[in-house]
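Course assignment 3, question 2. Fill in each field.
Student: A.L.
Task: Predict the tertiary structure for the chain below.
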Amino acid sequence: SGSYDMTGEQEKYMFQEYPRPFYLPYLLTSYQEAYRVLDIDDIYNLTSTQHADYETRINKIIKYDSKQPCDEDDTVLQVRNNLSNIQVFHFNDTSDTSPLKATIANNDNLFLRADGQNLACMVKLIYDKHPEYYKMIVDTIRNVVPDFHDFVIRHNSEFLSLEWFNKNNVDIPWKAHYLSDGSLRFIALAVLLLMPSELQPQVIIIDEPEIGLHPTALNVLSGLIKRASLERQVIISTQSATLLSQFEPDDVIVVDKKDKYSEFRRLSNHDLANWLESYTLGELWETNVIGGRP
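Answer field:
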């Protein structure tokens, strides 16, 4: 569920297709505060020069260093802090040059990078500092990736890359290149969603996590998303009817294009109760009962 409260015309207005991408902060605080900070009421009447001024203000918020004195008011700092606690993750690239297969310095473990480049470093950190979470991650991956036995943990290496043991030969380390695309993506998702909450951003956004995953893996993935959402805000975009069917209507926001803006509409368990006696939520989407079609 969202951390903001916008209904009716305010919700429709806030999600209009503005000519610049920097309007994301409006979603991260209450819309009243967004109005006060950025004076959104006259946004459509701004000149190009005025738009640039607003971008400069947003950049100032994003680049603000909390250790340095700042003359901005508390609302601006709240917007800045909300922005810094959001991470959009893309694990789609599984090519030979994929960041997930990169070799990286072993101290790059402050947070998981958006493309998973430092996945091996985060795995080692969880192994060293949070063994109970490490075990949970490994057990979950074993349920989805048949040949996976464990990660290779190198304790005295200056650089790390993702390595694993095959359950049929636990004496030979295997590189990430020997994982299927779907297996590699699931491993990254499992680490992200099962790591301790203090290592996660406050808001986790994942773009199309279903890509390359077996339907069984999607069932497991939905459970990981629900678990992570107990302590973190998790937002996913999906085009998978199978994944959609694992959630309740109250969990889902449908996006429809209306003329020059996008309309965001939350579904309701109550409104769809009769339909769901005979159909899954994914089937209702495929038959255009709930909208969200191209």
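Instructor remarks: Confidence is low (pLDDT under 50) at residues 1-48, 54-67. Residues 48-63 form the longest helix (16 residues).
Grade: pending
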